Amino acid sequence: MAVFQFPLVPSQQQMQITLNNTLYSLRVYWNSNPATNAWVLDISDSSGNPIVAGVPLVTGTDLMAQFSYLNLGGEFIVQTSSDTDAVPTFVNLGSDGNLFFVTP
Question: How confident is the prediction for the chain on average, in pLDDT?
Fold first, then answer.
C-alpha cells in the first residue's frame, strides 16, 4: 500500500498531479453555502475536461467510491489529525485536515 498526502493549504487551489501514470488537475475550494460550509474537490483531465465536480471533503469514506467506474487506481481519504472523524475546517486544511490518495 502506498499513501500520498496532497500538499494543501486553507485557500482555493489548483494543482496538476500524476496518479497511476495519468495526469489530473485537482481544484480544492471552500463552498460557503450555509447548508454545506465545506471544502470541495473537482477533478479534471490534463486538458481541463471535468471528470468529477463538487465532491465534499468528508471523513470516513473513500470520496471516489461512487465513481469506481473511473478506475483512478486508489482511494481519496480525508482525515483530520486531531480527530479522524472531524471534517477539515475553513482554517485547518493542509495542517490538521488532510487529503490522501491510497493505493492498494
Answer: 95
Residues 6+ apart with CB under 8 A from 15: 6, 7, 25, 26
Task: Please name which of 3, 4, 12 lies closest in space to residue 93, comparing C-alpha atoms.
Answer: 12
* Cα 75 from Cα 69, distance rounded (Å): 13
For residue range 70-85, list pLDDT tens digits in order: 999 999 999 999 998 9
Q: How far is CA 96 from CA 8, 33, 61, 86, 93, in A?
A: 10, 22, 18, 10, 6
The tally of CA atoms less than 13 A away on the side-chain side of residue 26 is: 20
